[in-house]
């Protein structure tokens, strides 16, 4: 009798609950339900036991390890000890050799999977994209040779990400080493990547050994989520999406078995990483990297290589169509060539002046226009033979004592100085002569920007600051430029062939 009564009470309670839940849901839906993806956060530290959920919310990803020496097996095992059912992905370019101790085909470890990113005749396209296989809301990137000893750290990270879902949450490994926090500026148009230090625990990129928790949705937005070196590659991509990284203070994971400690292993890894970095910058089209120390690294053309772009059609280099300006290495090489040309012309006593787009750049910023691919100089044809190199170049191309190549341009009566025999970025030298009050030219160029002009622009000559020095120029530069380019050219400069595409 008493048991029956208790059952009845239980039934009534269950029924009442169902009704309450039903009406709460209706009320919730009538208020608009889940308006945005992120609210309300799934997990709060205050909810009773988020630990049960963490396994279902997070996929562990192991990406940073060397096949020749690693601690991946024990690292993964340490996670499985704490979260037996959590999904684990081990991602590598090609199957590690020597093989990992984990038997990835062992059925009792269904939740641990290996993924090779490199293509193979045997692997279907879709299977090479592990990001499509992740089923959980979050991913946790775990560096090699680490341990987790309790559920709490991961729960704290998940709770923090719940509070600021569109960011990245980072936690250190070991309490001894402080993590670095960097600001990252990715300038696609100028092919550059700039790092600067910050004392904050909120920034764009983290250095030092750490765990990374983020939304799978964010990972899916990245063009190359797993490219090496990781996680540098990750932060370049998230920084360009303006995603912030937060370092959690007062908690840390444990170190695993020491790896890559020997002199030989470190040397080997450093070499591999240099190659990975080069490849990364190639893929992301970054040609100049400024480190937080102020050190500048170049990944573009050099004097010994060819320049960074191909033959120019209709005066519009290919990069302009990609929404980019001149690669910084090209601008730098062009400045060096121009300085050398100015010095040579000065030495020979040739009357010359800055022309066209270069003069426009000088007026605007004292530099080459950031999208320009050459430097234009006019000179007095009567002085030509004073320069030994111009004189020689009349007959055939000649490399001068400093390695610059002088030539008479094909299809024209003008001259060119190329940076080197291999790197053909160049300065144009246009000969003009005085004819009845006009600076006239032979038929070397059809473009309006190098057209003839009244001689009085050169009487007297003036000078202007350009690439860090004073360079001779016509007087009345504004009138001179507006004569060549039209009114307002200095304030609103255009691409060489603007009809080809709108100005950015
Ligand atoms: C599969 O993994 C389990 C747990 O690590 C281990 O006990 C078992 O021996 C493995 N089986 C095979 C066939 O490798
Ligand atoms: C100099 O550079 C121009 C433009 O890139 C190129 O067309 C020319 O062939 C180069 N001259 C020589 C001799 O390589
Ligand atoms: C020289 O210029 C003046 C005025 O611009 C013009 O009248 C004259 O015809 C020109 N002479 C020649 C030979 O072109």
UniProtKB/TrEMBL annotation:
Signal sequence coordinates: none
Residues annotated as domain LicD/FKTN/FKRP nucleotidyltransferase: 347-386
Species the sequence originates in: Tribolium castaneum (Red flour beetle)
InterPro entries assigned: FKRP_N, LicD/FKTN/FKRP_NTP_transf, LicD_transferase
Transmembrane helix recorded as keyword: yes
Any one of the GO BP annotations: protein O-linked glycosylation via mannose
Protein's name in the database: Fukutin-related protein-like Protein
Domain FKRP stem: 49-291
Keyword Secreted attached: no
Protein origin, superkingdom: Eukaryota
Record field: transmembrane: 5-25
A GO term from the CC aspect: Golgi apparatus
Keyword tags: Membrane, Transmembrane, Transmembrane helix
Pfam families according to UniProt: FKRP_N, LicD
């Amino acid at each position: 009798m008493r048991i029956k009564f208790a059952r009845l009470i239980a039934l009534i309670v269950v029924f009442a609950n169902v009704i309450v839940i039903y009406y709460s849901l209706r009320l919730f839906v009538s208020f608009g339900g889940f308006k945005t993806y992120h609210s309300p956060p799934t997990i709060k530290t205050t909810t009773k036991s988020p630990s049960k959920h963490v396994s279902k919310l997070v996929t562990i990803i192991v990406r940073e390890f060397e096949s020749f020496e690693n601690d991946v097996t024990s690292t993964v095992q340490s996670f499985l000890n704490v979260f037996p059912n959590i999904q684990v992905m081990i991602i590598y370019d090609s199957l590690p050799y020597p093989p990992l101790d984990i038997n990835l085909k062992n059925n009792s470890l269904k939740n641990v999977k290996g993924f090779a990113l490199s293509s193979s005749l045997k692997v279907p396209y879709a299977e090479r994209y592990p990001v499509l296989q992740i089923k959980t809301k979050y991913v946790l990137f775990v560096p090699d040779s680490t341990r987790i000893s309790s559920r709490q750290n991961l729960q704290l990270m998940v709770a923090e990400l719940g509070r600021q879902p569109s960011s990245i949450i980072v936690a250190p490994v070991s309490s001894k080493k402080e993590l670095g926090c960097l600001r990252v500026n990715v300038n696609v148009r100028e092919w550059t990547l700039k790092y600067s230090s910050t004392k904050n625990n909120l920034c764009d990129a983290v250095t030092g050994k750490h765990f990374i928790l983020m939304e799978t949705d964010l990972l899916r937005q990245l063009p190359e989520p797993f490219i090496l070196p990781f996680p540098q590659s990750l932060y370049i991509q998230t920084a360009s999406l303006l995603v912030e990284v937060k370092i959690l203070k007062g908690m840390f994971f444990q170190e695993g078995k020491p790896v890559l400690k020997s002199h030989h292993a470190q040397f080997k890894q450093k070499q591999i990483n240099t190659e990975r970095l080069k490849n990364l910058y190639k893929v992301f089209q970054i040609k100049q990297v400024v480190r937080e120390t102020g050190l500048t690294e170049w990944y573009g053309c050099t004097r010994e290589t060819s320049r960074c772009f191909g033959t120019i059609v209709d005066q519009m280099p290919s990069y302009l169509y990609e929404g980019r300006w001149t690669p910084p290495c090209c601008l730098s090489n062009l400045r060096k060539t121009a300085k050398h040309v100015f010095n040579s012309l000065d030495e020979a006593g040739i009357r010359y002046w800055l022309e066209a787009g270069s003069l426009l750049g000088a007026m605007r910023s004292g530099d080459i226009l950031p999208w320009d691919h050459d430097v234009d100089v006019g000179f007095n044809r009567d002085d030509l033979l004073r320069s030994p190199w111009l004189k020689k170049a009349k007959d055939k191309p000649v490399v001068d004592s400093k390695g610059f190549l002088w030539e008479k341009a094909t299809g024209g009566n003008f001259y060119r100085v190329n940076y080197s025999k291999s790197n053909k970025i160049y300065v144009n030298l246009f000969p003009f002569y005085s004819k009845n009050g006009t600076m006239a030219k032979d038929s070397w160029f059809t473009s309006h920007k190098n057209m003839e002009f009244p001689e009085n622009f050169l009487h007297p000559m003036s000078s202007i600051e350009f690439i860090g020095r004073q360079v001779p120029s016509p007087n009345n530069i504004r009138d001179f430029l507006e004569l060549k380019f039209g009114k307002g050219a200095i304030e609103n400069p255009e691409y060489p062939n603007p009809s080809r595409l709108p100005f950015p």
